[in-house]
Amino acid sequence: MPEPDRRTLPPGSVIGILGGGQLGRMLSLAASKLGFKTHVYCPDPDSPAFHVTDRRSLAAYDDAVALAAFAKTVDIVTYEFENVPAETAAALVAHVPVEPKPSILETTQDRYAEKSFIRRQGLSVAEFDAVSSAAEVEAAAARIGYPCVLKTRRFGYDGKGQAVVDHPSGIARAWLEIGGKPAIAEAFVRFSREISVIVARGRDGTMRTFDIAENRHERHILRTSTVPAAIGAATAKAAREAGLAVAQAFDYVGVLAVEMFVVGDGAAETLLVNEIAPRVHNSGHWTEDACQISQFELHVRAIAGWPLPVPRRHCDVEMTNLLGAEVLDYASFAAKPDVVVHLYGKSEPRPGRKMGHINRLIPGGSS
Amino acid sequence: MPEPDRRTLPPGSVIGILGGGQLGRMLSLAASKLGFKTHVYCPDPDSPAFHVTDRRSLAAYDDAVALAAFAKTVDIVTYEFENVPAETAAALVAHVPVEPKPSILETTQDRYAEKSFIRRQGLSVAEFDAVSSAAEVEAAAARIGYPCVLKTRRFGYDGKGQAVVDHPSGIARAWLEIGGKPAIAEAFVRFSREISVIVARGRDGTMRTFDIAENRHERHILRTSTVPAAIGAATAKAAREAGLAVAQAFDYVGVLAVEMFVVGDGAAETLLVNEIAPRVHNSGHWTEDACQISQFELHVRAIAGWPLPVPRRHCDVEMTNLLGAEVLDYASFAAKPDVVVHLYGKSEPRPGRKMGHINRLIPGGSS
Q: Which residues contact A332 (CB under 8 A, 6 or more apart)?
């Protein structure tokens, strides 16, 4: 008898989504397009995904009663972000299938575990070491070299929990800056480009990759993703393979992103894997308008056991995040015929907050 | 001071939608993409649009209290179908802007008024006459010729309320068949093709058309729309112009569809306008996947006073409706990489019911 969580979910099934931000919102929209209902669970009453879902649970991630009630209303649970508490996921698994598997979060929620996992797959990463005191930072830095970067092992995102150490004299300050928490010390990478690959993997092991995006960050926040990336064919192939290796090693079901650094140029290009996001990813938003299928729909199809078509890109594209008050210029973006506007319905345009994105379509290219 | 209903609606505004079927659902999804909230009003508890909206009103169209409460929660009202009772629309107009203007419904809800309106725009229609008795049918048919078609003036759709009359002896039966209601008698058109144009018109009078679709009906229900239509350039131009003339004459705001017959072939092609749908239309569903902007988004933008980009088609496309139990084959459609699947989340696949549609993308063409 097939296991219950290996069934194909028919249209009309209910997909539970942990997290009500823009990723949950776009997952809900993609699920709706396939005839699924969604139920969004989020502790924030101002969750943009609440506007586009059939059911909502406004409750804390450690509310066992609310989680159990939520689990009863859904056929499968997925999530929009990797910091779902492990206990939350575990509580749900007792009641309902959860994809991707919560055990993966244990790896990706801890930078040291994550980097170690990546290295075990035979992929290159920047030199790193676990550190839990200023003295350990000094020892690690002596080995890795200066400058190096301190990054907290847990709950870092968009550059939060990071500090650069240029010289032994800066260690004490940097250690304070990251809150004196368990961290890794990592070699500072002088990259030529940042890229990412979006991978989907189905229940039957089928894997798909989208074309490689080239990403530009500003103050640690993604600003643009451009496709195709200006990298050699061999580098693009290696980047896809890195994504596939990660998905395969996790026995992953759903969409994940692998962010990488390209070091060197031309024939000398090499790759260092930076991090894994076990979810749909900002650097995959371009797929919504430049392909016949988006990362959001591929994720929904993967967890639902549906077929995963090979993504086809029909044009080149540049995605730009709209941060904070930039969203107020929506009318000027909306006036450009080659620009597709996506707004998240967030009420307050706080500085640096991701309020929407635009995809500028560049006819000509395709894959 | 500008009139309140001429303001541009910012993201976060609430769009009220009368009708909760698949068109309301896809309007709601398109509005969400632009950061709007939606509130769907529908008397049917099993409304697919209810699954993807921020707020729902489950109430009858003649429930004045519910309509007034609905009006208070929204910034503008639009509708997914043309049979909204005139009193409903009028009750709303007292409280809130309604687009397209309800007065247009008075014309399109009555085939005689509609055909007369079309003819006044200088557009060709099949010969027709108003009839309200079997005797009047006989007189009209004598003028128009046999065969002719009886169509009830009001509430006809998907072939309901229609009967063909081949000979004077068939009049009594046909008159009974359509329920003995006020009707038009219309010349039977021996068309070579059926086509439609989707037009968007903004508050400032800006107009856009999509490429002409060629439509195939089965048992009066749309089966496929293929783009581009296999018609001459002059015919396509005339079809666009017919759409623009109708939108202009109505001082229309939003998206409408004009369905036409092509009579003759090649250089002898001529057009007869068949009917107007003052709403997004089934023959425009191909726009979701073959253009950078869909009919649904253009409708939302038009009523919200946003810019209307020129639609650009990046491939040829064939839309096929999934009727009744055909939807159960969703997995086989979903397995084709060139097919985009749209399911409406309706619970019961009754025979002939529109359960979803697929867009088959055909690379190569573009506009």
A: none
SS3 A3: coil
How far apart (Å, rounded) are the C-alpha atoms in residues A212 and A252?
20
Look up residue B206 and give its amino acid.
Answer: T
| Cβ neighbours of A347 in B, within 8 Å | 12
CA angle B249, B203, B110 (to 5 degrees): 40
Question: CA separation (Å) from A324 to A96, A355, B217?
Answer: 37, 6, 49
Q: Is B53 on the interface with A (CB under 8 A)?
A: yes
pLDDT in tens, chain B (367 residues): 334 345 799 999 999 999 999 999 999 999 999 999 999 999 999 999 999 999 999 999 999 999 999 999 999 999 998 788 888 888 899 999 999 999 999 899 999 999 999 999 999 999 999 999 999 999 999 999 999 999 999 976 666 789 999 999 999 999 999 999 999 999 999 999 999 999 999 999 999 999 999 999 999 999 999 999 999 999 999 999 999 999 999 999 999 999 999 999 988 999 999 999 999 999 999 999 999 999 999 999 999 999 999 999 999 999 999 999 999 999 999 999 999 999 999 999 999 999 999 999 998 666 6
The burial class, CB within 10 Å (0-12 / 13-18 / 19+), for B136 is: middle
Q: Which residues pair with B362 in a beta bridge?
A: B316
- In whole angstroms, give the CA distance from residue A199 to residue A242: 10
Q: What element of type H or E holds B223?
A: strand B221-227
> CA–CA separation, A213 vs B95, rounded Å?
48
**ipTM for the whole complex:** 0.94
Calpha distance B160→B178 (Å, rounded): 8
A37/B334 CB distance under 8 A: no
Q: What are phi and psi of B128, to 5 degrees?
A: -150, 165
Task: Kindly report the nearest CA distance between residue B233 and chain A, in angstroms.
Answer: 24
Residues in contact with B331: Cβ distance below 8 Å, sequence separation at least 6, in sequence order: A8, A306, A307
Report the phi/psi class of residue B36: left, alpha or beta, with left for phi > 0 and alpha for psi in -120 to 50.
beta
| Its pTM surpasses 0.90 | yes
- Contact list in B for residue A74 (CB cut-off 8 A) is none
Instruction: Return the amino acid letter for A141.
Output: A
Rounded to an integer, what distance in angstroms lies between the CA atom of residue A326 and that of residue A339?
Answer: 15
Q: Do A309 and B336 touch (CB under 8 A)?
A: yes
- Which pair of tokens denotes residue B123? 């557009």
B6: tokens are 């001429």
Give CA B133 to chain center in angstroms.
Answer: 29
For residue A335, give the nearest of B33, B307, B338 by CB distance.
B307
A324 at interface of B, judged by CB pairs closer than 8 A: no
* Dihedral over Cα of B77, B78, B79, B84: its sign: positive
- In SS3 terms, A145-168 reads as CCCEEEEECCCCCCCCCEEEECCH
Backbone angles phi, psi at B52, to 5 degrees: -130, 25
The whole-angstrom separation of Cα B157 and Cα B172 is 22
Please give the Cα distance from A99 to A101 (Å, whole number): 5
